[in-house]
Specification:
Elements lengths: L4 E2 L2 E10 L2 E8 L4 E7 L8 H15 L9 E7 L2 E7 L3 E3 H4 L5 H20 L2 E2 L8 E4 L4 E3 L6 E2 L24 H4 L6 H17 L9 H10 L5 H4 L5 H10 L11 H21 L15 H31 L6 E6 L14 E3 L5 E6 L2 E6 L5 E3 L7 E5 L5 E6 L2 E6 L6 E5 L7 E3 L5 E3 L8 E4 L2 E6 L9 E9 L5 E8 L10 E6 L5 E6 L3 E5 L3 E6 L2 E8 L4 E10 L4 E2 L4 E2 L1 E3 L5 E3 L4 E2 L3 E7 L4 E3 L7 E6 L5 E8 L2 E8 L4 E4 L6 E6 L5 E6 L6 E6 L7 E4 L5 E5 L5 E8 L3 E8 L7 E2 L8 E5 L5 E6 L6 E6 L7 E2 L7 E4 L5 E5 L4 E7 L5 E9 L14 E2 L5 E7 L8 E6 L1 H8 L5
Parallel strand pairs: 33-37
Antiparallel strand pairs: 1-2, 2-3, 3-4, 4-6, 5-6, 7-9, 8-11, 9-10, 12-62, 13-14, 14-15, 15-16, 17-18, 18-19, 19-20, 21-22, 22-23, 23-24, 25-26, 26-27, 27-28, 29-30, 30-31, 31-32, 33-34, 35-36, 36-62, 38-39, 38-61, 40-41, 41-42, 42-43, 44-45, 45-46, 46-47, 48-49, 49-50, 50-51, 52-53, 53-54, ...
Length: 887
């Protein structure tokens, strides 16, 4: 249409195109001005409903005369196509311009958009598609709201004209309000929510909701609270944070109720911020001149400046001498690249430690520990640390502590054999070494902290889990220089596999007194210059901290933005030495972006055609046509079902702690655990979502392991406070009560029945190390060890002739015979480099009904397998000299 004349408008150029129109720049030949013409797309022109909606846009917007709303001049039709004539805005959309906008400009833009929306709302107009693409910033700085094509016009009285197609959801993914996502009626408060999303993105550079696909994004909008802006971009003041977060309340009744109020609050914030900036500048004040004075006062006024001048000169010389005589340590940044055959093991456990003097680094790669002296080009393997994890240094830097084989150990870096200090579960959660030699450690994923002497002996309990506060774990302890305080991560029962919103506490080792320091952090360490470093959402932050209080002071600052680690356990990979050398492993946080994959028995892995997500606990239906799996979003977990043939995904549960789905033998039902902090239960529902769900109360957190082939029995894993886990059974054709299975007097996890129901496999930890055993079911004599070394879970082949089990690196297959007595045959590796994920249920893989494929989840390529360690020497010196934190 370029160059054509439509009515008295000459088309000059195409400006853009959206779902409800194509926009051209044109010249109004009558009034000699530039305008914008918006045409209804030709493929929609035949729809009277869309024409009506298009006309509504003109009516809605033309009713507004406000500098922050694009002016509508006319509406016409040309060759059967409707078009609107509107003001030509010479500028850029907010999306195109946002990277060029300062904080001060962002506040001004927010005020103008709020003013424009307030004017629309006063006239009963709801925009319903507020987003950066519909906001223009003119060259003169004026901001204008565009495109009221999705508006809902309030007619007289309470009558509302709805022009949205029945059952449809109107808006743009990522910017819709919870009520829009759920298809509910909306009012002006929906615009307030969308406005909050836009302002949050403008101020922080990222959206408050980040689902990896549209369905997950919609789920976050409805269920997940956004992180405070100050945690995303430190330096944002709490008062500004509060304004935006009030706009993002899920419940419209609790949300800010008017855009006019938002505009007032932003204007007040802008004024107060300006006053604060002015108050930092002290203006010069003239010395008042005395009307009368005597000679003595005159001499004083003459001598006093001379004395002050001499004093200042002496002080200046002294300061110059002291400054010139000191030797500054160099702040230097460097990267250590690992050899091609080494891959850092970043999952589940913290993978790096730095000595107190900052002279050497120990890291975990290829299942063992390596030490790298910073004055050397070569990393040396530490003999005796095979399968070790979670390294930590002694105060003198001569020993390294670590966990291996279900035990807490130490080894001298100068050489020698490992020394066993204490028993620990295979899923340790870190340790720290105090100046007096005491070691404080977390032996497993669901315990408090223990303390032990450096020579070993009987460990003593340091912290008890506070059940009244819903605590389920104390982990990642780190000592402070005072020799008596240990900080640690506190995880809750409501988020066993998510630590981005965990708590950081402190305990006095001498008295046992506890205090709470931080909310919303996965792990923390103390930096001796009076800073606390903590991790959150793949970033490392620093905040002023006074150990003597103990309390946090002031606001936090970003240190590192690309921190690797595991959000499922909180094991984020950073460390800092006593003299200020900062070490971290760059990369992505694992477990948040995974693929569902099928691996054949030759080890070839193929991803299913699904968008990556936080996938967990996959299980294949008995006919092999569908997959039930869990998607974790923050603290919430939901069951989804993927239809392999049709490549469609349907949500099965909606919010809460829904975990460990298993299929009934006929594939018609799914049993799963619902594990809120209270009123836990097993839910059984029809797989197609029809009918009424059966709810069986369990009174304690539970995971479903398997459903027997005859349909009568569920095997479950249940936590035992203070001692780990046990296996329970539930008879579905009986009283449906949990009954402890006989073997679990010691320890039991991941119980799975053989196809004929005669045998049960499980992971036992009688020796502290996870091992796969098989025993008769439901009772009988005999116990057979199937796995060699540490194992996490096992699955039977459909014919019962093979038992597959996982380690942290591979999937093994063992041939078995169970017609008479149980016989173990040959073992082989079927999948190397298995991307095992540490989750509380320990349910990470499944076997296809034909026995030819293994269903797994794995991190997206490029987001795992780091080969680099970053180091900043004398990082604390930079803070002390400049008062800033270097990213």
């Amino acid at each position: 249409m370029i160059g054509q004349k439509v009515s008295h408008y000459k088309i000059l150029e195409k400006l853009g195109e959206g779902g409800m129109g194509v926009v051209f720049k044109a010249r109004d030949t009558k009034l000699d001005r530039d305008v914008a013409l918006k045409f209804l797309p030709s493929h929609l022109s035949a729809s009277e409903e869309d024409k009506t909606r298009f006309i509504q846009e003109a009516k809605a917007a033309s009713a507004l005369t406000h500098p922050n709303v694009c002016t509508i001049h006319d509406i016409q039709e040309h060759e059967g196509r409707m078009f609107i004539v509107m003001e030509f805005v010479d500028g850029m959309t907010l999306r195109d311009k946002r990277d060029q906008i300062s904080l001060k400009q962002a506040i001004e833009i927010g005020i103008q958009v709020a003013d424009g929306l307030a004017a629309a709302h006063e006239k009963g107009i709801v925009h319903r598609d507020i987003k950066p693409d519909n906001i223009m910033v003119r060259k003169d700085g004026i901001v204008q709201i565009m495109d009221f094509g999705l508006a809902k016009l309030r007619a007289s009285g309470s009558k509302i004209t709805r022009l949205t197609k029945e059952g449809s959801t109107v808006g743009t993914a990522g910017y819709m309000s919870p009520e829009q996502v759920q298809g509910q009626d909306v009012d002006h408060r929906s615009d307030i929510f969308s406005y909050g999303v836009v302002l949050y993105e403008l101020l922080t550079g990222q959206l408050p909701f980040k689902g990896v696909h549209e369905t997950a994004l919609a789920y976050e909008i409805v269920n997940v609270d956004p992180a405070p802006m100050s945690t995303v971009k430190p330096g944002i003041e709490p008062s500004l944070d509060a304004i935006v977060l009030d706009c993002l309340e899920k419940d419209p009744k609790e949300r800010t109720q008017s855009m006019a109020q938002v505009a007032v609050e932003l204007k007040r914030y802008k004024r107060e911020s300006s006053r604060q900036r002015v108050s930092r500048v002290t203006s010069a004040r003239p010395i008042p001149k005395s009307e009368t004075y005597d000679s003595s006062s005159q001499r004083k006024r003459v001598l006093l400046p001379l004395v002050l001048t001499v004093v200042l000169i002496v002080l200046g010389v002294a300061v110059w001498w002291l400054w010139s005589s000191r030797t500054d340590r160099v702040v230097a940044s460097l990267s250590i690249s690992l050899p091609a055959d080494q891959t850092i093991s970043t999952g589940t456990y913290v993978a790096v430690a730095v000595s107190p003097d900052g002279s050497r680094i120990v890291y975990r790669a290829n299942g063992k520990m390596y030490q790298r002296k910073l004055d050397s080009f070569i990393a040396e393997a530490i003999s005796g640390t095979e399968d070790g994890s979670t390294p930590f240094f002694s105060p003198d830097g001569k020993w390294i502590g670590y966990f291996a084989d279900g035990k807490l150990k130490k080894i001298a870096l100068s050489g020698g054999a490992p020394v066993i200090l204490a028993q620990a579960a295979s899923d340790n959660r870190g340790a720290t070494w105090l100046d007096d030699g005491t070691i404080v450690y977390s032996p497993g994923g669901s315990s408090g902290l223990f303390r032990i002497s450096p020579e070993g002996g009987d460990p003593a309990i340091l912290t008890h889990l506070d059940t009244t506060r819903n605590e389920r774990t104390h982990r990642w302890p780190r000592s402070l220089p005072d020799g008596k305080t240990v900080i640690f991560t506190i995880g809750g029962k409501d988020s066993p596999d998510y630590y981005e919103d965990a708590l950081i506490g402190a305990v006095n080792v001498k008295t046992g007194d506890r205090s709470l320091l931080l909310r919303g952090a996965s792990r923390a360490e103390y930096a001796s210059a009076g800073y606390l470093l903590y991790s959150h959402s793949g970033s490392l932050f620093a905040v002023r901290y006074n150990p003597g209080q103990p309390r946090i002071e002031a606001s936090s600052y970003t240190v590192v933005n690309n921190l690797s680690g595991d959000q499922l356990t909180g094991a984020m990979n950073f460390a800092i030495s006593a003299n200020g050398t900062l070490v971290w492993i760059p990369g992505q946080s694992l477990s948040g972006n995974r693929e569902l994959c099928l691996a054949d028995l030759e080890g070839r892995v193929k991803a299913l055609p699904l968008q990556p997500g936080h996938y967990m606990e996959p299980r294949i239906s008995p006919d092999g046509t569908k997959i039930a799996f869990v998607i974790g979003t923050g603290k919430d977990y939901d069951v989804w079902i993927y239809d392999i043939a049709n490549n469609t995904t349907n949500r099965f549960t909606f919010g809460g702690q829904n975990r460990s789905p298993v299929w009934s033998p006929d594939g018609k039902r799914i049993a799963y655990a619902n594990n809120p902090s209270e009123n836990t239960s097993i839910i059984i529902r029809q797989a197609d979502g029809t009918g009424t769900a059966e709810e069986i109360r369990t009174e304690q957190r539970t995971y479903v392991n398997c459903w027997s082939r005859n349909g009568s029995t569920l095997v479950l894993t249940v936590p035992v406070p203070g001692s780990g886990w046990e296996l329970d059974t539930m008879q579905l054709n009986g009283d449906r009560k949990l009954r402890q299975w006989q073997v679990t007097r010691t320890y039991g996890l991941q119980g799975n029945l053989s196809p004929d129901g005669r045998w049960i496999s499980y992971v036992g930890r009688e020796s502290g190390l996870g091992v796969v055993y098989v025993r008769p079911f439901p009772h009988g004599d005999g116990k057979w060890q199937v796995s060699v070394g540490e194992a996490h879970e096992a699955r039977w082949s459909p014919d019962g002739k093979t038992l597959y089990y996982t380690t942290s690196q591979m999937v093994n297959a063992v041939s078995v015979e169970g017609k008479g007595s149980f016989v173990i045959g040959r073992s082989r590796i079927v999948l190397r480099d298995y991307p095992w994920t540490a989750i509380e249920s320990n349910s990470t893989f499944d076997i296809s009904p034909d026995g030819q494929h293994i269903l797994i989840t794995k991190a997206v390529e490029g987001e795992s397998s780091p080969h680099q360690i970053n180091v900043v020497l004398n990082w604390l010196d930079q803070i002390q000299r400049s008062g800033t934190i270097v990213q």
